TrEMBL record:
Gene3D superfamilies, alphabetized: 3.30.70.20, P-loop containing nucleotide triphosphate hydrolases
Tagged with keyword Transmembrane: no
Species this chain originates from: Desulfopila aestuarii DSM 18488
Superkingdom of the organism of origin: Bacteria
InterPro entries xref list: 4Fe4S_Fe-S-bd, 4Fe4S_Fe_S_CS, CobQ/CobB/MinD/ParA_Nub-bd_dom, P-loop_NTPase
UniProt keyword annotations, A-Z: Iron, Iron-sulfur, Metal-binding
Matching SUPFAM superfamilies: 4Fe-4S ferredoxins, P-loop containing nucleoside triphosphate hydrolases
Residue ranges the record marks as coiled coil: none
Protein name: MinD superfamily P-loop ATPase, contains an inserted ferredoxin domain
Amino acid sequence: MIVTVASGKGGTGKTTVATSLACAISDSVHLLDCDVEEPNVHIFLHPKIQYQETVYTMVPEVDQERCNGCRKCVDICRFSAITVVGQKLLTFPELCHGCVGCMVVCPENAITEGGREVGKFEIGQRGAIRFGHGLLRIGEAMAPPLIRKVREQIDDKGITIIDAPPGTSCPVITAMRGVDFVLLVTEPTPFGLHDLKLAVEAVIKLGIPCGIVINRSDLGDNGVQDYAQQQGIPVLMEIPFSREIARNYSKGRILAEQSPKWREKFAGLYEKIKICAAC
Ligand code: SF4
Ligand code: SF4
């Protein structure tokens, strides 16, 4: 079972839910932080890091001597990451998505595979939880290669919880694609509802079953509940606003570890997810 915990916007409590879900599952579980721009699961989990690796993405390296200026590589590149100016071929590594298209079409074999560092990948352990995350290099815009590297840790036979980046752009889709269930964390405000709708659209396009967790559920309005009902999306959990929860969050404490009541609630949430994913 692979569950991605996502949200249409940041600050909704996505990491609170992902970490608590992982802690409440009694079996061994993989908790993967794919929010590579701002990973913070490790701040709550305190895993013992056992392995670190630098992650690179492919960028073209051009042999100007071989290049005949035919522009086939320029024409195939959808990202304007390669161009010919006069007799010279120029590349823009920051725009390159590493698709290797230019390499494949070059009739002169003038392009070879170079590498650009996108960030670091780390794995570790805390009790029964196996942990993995990516740390995007400062200034790097290309998160998907690093997210794909973190996703290589998915255990197809076991349970994996993925903490996705916020929003609905490319990195989020990379974190959601091919999973069994998406848990959307939101808050009951017009902003929360707006971003939830965008996230639901993305999940529907990917054809993945989903459910909703409403955080700070006693603040705001009924818009999220009404929308969920209209769309036939189950609200699987509500977390009311509590100063104690907020205080513990600011101290880096995992909600499911604050009391047996919350551990049970999150264990119950996982049972509901299993039922919904099988529907
Ligand atoms: S496809 Fe090859 S030969 Fe043609 S412009 Fe690009 S690098 Fe040069
Ligand atoms: S690898 Fe793909 S994205 Fe990068 S320059 Fe070549 S064609 Fe463009």
